[in-house]
Write a structure and sequence with these properties.
267 residues; alpha/beta; eight-stranded mixed sheet; 7 helices; 8 strands; 13% strand; disordered N terminus
Length: 267
């Protein structure tokens, strides 16, 4: 079967199809911002990137959006992050199937933040590795850890590393190339790296971008030469880095568009 039977992930309120955006060229901005850099959409002197799973601000301080950007919808709020995680996980299961997600070394959750998405996936029996440079992120609450133990599922693996092409080639982590899927739920600065690393490894990805970080990545330009300054620009630019990727609007709080690249049959 396709592994979709028996899933306990809460059914989302709805998943809406959205036609894929136009392709957009430009060099790929990769990896997280290093500590102390201004992430544009975060406060000056921002900290490490990530926080996609919600729970803690990846860039520190209050969020600042560039003119023309829509509201990010408090994407680091833990309650919203939990709601997003359930909807996003249901999308992943329905799109890729449980059997596929469990294959290889399982799912890479980039900038996993408070661990909401990784917890929901792990409760489905999917192996999950959280990659987030912040040592205190990706740690589940005591109640969640107890639930995983009772369900006899494997604990979530945590790598406190920056996500980049260099990490993919690191001999200490051969499992990264064997993952089933690379995911990011509001991963802040790591959005571009998710696309680039997944494609370099020949793995599919599913990404729900959030903040633009126009000042942090001034090299990003659309196919018409204009800089990436808004959320819609970012979506188009990311799709331009991944020909054949698709776009869909999920029903959850905050920025809800997911970009994804299907799995290649036989890989």
């Amino acid at each position: 079967g396709d592994g979709k039977e028996g899933s306990t992930v809460p059914d989302p309120a709805g998943v809406h199809n959205k036609q894929g955006g136009s392709t957009a060229g430009g060099p790929a901005g990769v990896g997280h911002a290093k500590p102390g850099r201004n992430g544009e959409d975060g406060a000056a002197g921002s900290g490490p990137a990530g926080g996609g799973g919600g729970g803690s601000g990846a860039t520190g301080g209050s969020k600042r959006e560039r003119p023309g950007d829509s509201s990010a919808g408090d994407h680091h709020d833990r309650q919203n992050a939990s709601a997003r995680a359930s909807v996003f996980a249901r999308f992943l299961v329905s799109t890729f199937g449980l059997d596929y997600l469990k294959s290889g070394t399982g799912v890479l959750d980039v900038a996993g933040g408070g661990g909401e998405l990784s917890f929901v996936l792990a409760m489905e029996g999917i192996p999950v590795t959280v990659i987030d440079p912040r040592a205190d992120e990706g740690k589940l609450r005591r109640r969640q850890r107890k639930m995983l133990r009772r369900a006899q599922h494997a604990p979530i693996t945590k790598l406190a590393e920056w996500f980049s092409l260099d990490l993919l080639e690191d001999p200490r982590y051969p499992q990264l190339k064997q993952c089933s899927l690379v995911v990011g739920m509001h991963p802040d600065e790591a959005a571009g790296a998710i696309v680039e690393v997944a494609r370099a490894a020949g793995r599919p990805f599913a990404l729900a971008p959030c903040c633009v970080f126009a000042r942090l990545f001034p090299e990003r330009h659309l196919s018409d030469g204009s800089p990436v300054r808004t959320y819609e620009d970012l979506l188009d630019w990311l799709q331009g880095q991944a020909p054949g990727s698709q776009r869909r609007d999920l029903d959850f709080p905050g920025r809800s568009v997911v970009l994804w690249q299907p799995a290649v049959t036989g890989v």
